[in-house]
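pls ignore typos typing on phone
zinc ion + seq
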Amino acid sequence: MVEMRTPEAGRRLGRDLLDRVVAGGARSPLTHVEDVPARDGRPVDWPSWVPDLLVERLAVRGITAPWEHQATVASLAWSGRSVVVSTGTASGKSLAYQLPALSALLTDDRTTALYLAPTKALAADQLRALRSLVLPSLRTATYDGDTPPDERDWVRSHGRLVLTNPDMLHRGILPAHARWSGFLRRLRYVVVDECHTYRGIFGSHVAHVLRRLRRVCASYGTDPTFVLASATVAAPAESASRLTGLDVEEVTRDASPRGGTAFALWEPPLTGLTGEHGAPVRRAAGSEAARLLADLVVEGARTLAFVRSRRGAEVVALSARRHLADAAPELADRVAAYRGGYLPEERRALESALATGRLMGAATTNALELGVDIAGLDAVVLAGYPGTLASLWQQAGRAGRGAENALVVFIARDDPLDTYLVHHPEAIFGRSVEATVLDPENPHVLGPQLCCAAAELPLTENDLALFGESAARALLPDLVRRGVLRHRPTGWYWTGRRRPDVDIRGTGGEPVRVVEVGTGRVLGTVDAWASHSTVHSGAVYLHQGVSYVVDELDLAEAVALVHVEDTDWTTSARDTTDIRIVSTLRERDAGEVSLHFGTVDVTNQVVSYLRRRIASGEVLDETPLDLPARQLRTRAVWYTLSPAALERSGLEWVEVPGAAHAAEHSAIGLLPLFATCDRWDIGGVSTALHEDTGRATVFVYDGHPGGAGFAARGFDKATAWLRATREAVAACECESGCPSCVQSPKCGNGNEPLDKAGAIQLLDVVLADLER
Ligand SMILES: [Zn+2]
Ligand SMILES: [Zn+2]
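k done
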């Protein structure tokens, strides 16, 4: 990625900036300020195999020597070892994979290389960076949904360094591999950039797309070396191996220099108001971020605020503009919102305003996290945990200009994980415990992928090991029975006339379009599964700061019809969930407490929604909804407590449901610390007596068909996970439960019953047995 570094003298240090914007009040919202020190780089000599021409061209771009980690990665790859580099933002991961790939292309004109990015924007960035090296013999080109048909022919026949994405590889390149045979026959390197983004269901699909690529290459006699680049995560080699199916080496020691950062952890103060069930209410992270964004802009700091939701980004930008209208009216229109889901032309206009500095501040969602060429900001504000530590560092990395100190402020939302993090700085600044989780053996992924593979080349016995021998063997008879594959002595054949239609980003069904009644304008799209809870009839939907109300959610047409309406209330959906155990795959029997991992059936139905006054959070009314129940066969981790264990906990029988429910909520909140999932990717059910276990049971399940590996990670890390859960609950300053510890915004039972003290008693018993 190219970084824009505008040399500007006299920048203030991050700490000074922080002092100016933290109002001197009774109680500072800061729980911790970490001075992430500046680091000197460790340059080394160019490896001897790098051609002089490349060394010269890099020198023109100001790169006179590689950092140690870049040279290590490059040399491993050059020797044919697949390798993953897992280092911080702006540590020069690109050069690490460019060196071997470009050297190979320059020294052997029969060689080709393939570069995969998770987004088109990132591939476009990479193309610009490569073209700036002015190496015409490389014949570098992107091949994606934007490539015009006449150019596609040229890329296939002449491209030597092709930049694409997994979607295009899956839909465009592999099914037409015969037309790519010239390219694939000479393929020496496959670069997988930002590989930590391949997680969950999408990651599991990508794992098979890469296996398919390897199999097709093998049929043309090539065995390319993979070079992967990842953000800092736990166990990068293990994740990269699961992603590629190859034995992958890891390089994690970052030898690039970096400027210092003052990294502040900020817990919004209590407002003195009470919310649901009398819980204390904190100032919202979004309001704090809006104020901070405005204050930083007033201080002359170019600032980006990351907000988790689309809606949140709109609200933060709007309210920052409102603050500025009072404090510095000339700056008010220099702050804007930027989020995913905008139409391309809206997005481009905002991007260019940010790039030129016409905008001083922006509130954005994770849409800006990858692939957009914005770095060198003075300050970054994170309103709420972005879901993964990798994202947190990626976003924080947008701040900093060369040797200057930058400011990063992480504002906790009212949520157990955020609360845990602002009180446990070591979880952020210490060694990462978060791993990139995916599960290629998910039958809902593997089945369709085996069909894609068979459609490309018949599947043979020898291929099965590549796709996960036992899982594939278990699925094939069913695919044959359903008539999609035919089994012959030479292998399994795809029977369809057309290619299998498999959506690798799919989380279930076609996305729902949000359409304005009257104008017919498409405002954006919403994931099919999420649509039941976000764009049901009566839901409030925000776009560009404008509030809409949904008239109708038409599931058959996958469209939500909305009209403009300015409301002073928000909506939140209610649902019911049942869970049945199908089979147990792994278990740890710790006596009175037992821990399990297995397959479950979850039945979920969104049944109603609440309208809440925005200002006070007061519930106005509840409206029933008529949406169908949905069934999900997935994976879950669960623990049970015997009557003797419950007795040891000191809980009365009537207290067990509230204790288990509170422990469940908080555990869901903390799992993302260990697995790259989102709180919304997982769900839970707890009960004092579950009919399948006959005991008090707490379930946490993967919210995607077949599971995405999150519950499995929970099982593997159960002790550390439940320990962090217990600490998050115990450390919260509220008396009897609040959103920072045990209340959940997605609770289908309206957060009832919840017993905070009981959750601690229950978890103590569970941990005493598991830790023994
Ligand atoms: Zn609390
Ligand atoms: Zn609940």
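Residues 1-11 have pLDDT under 50 and may be disordered. The chain is about 35% helix and 25% strand. more later
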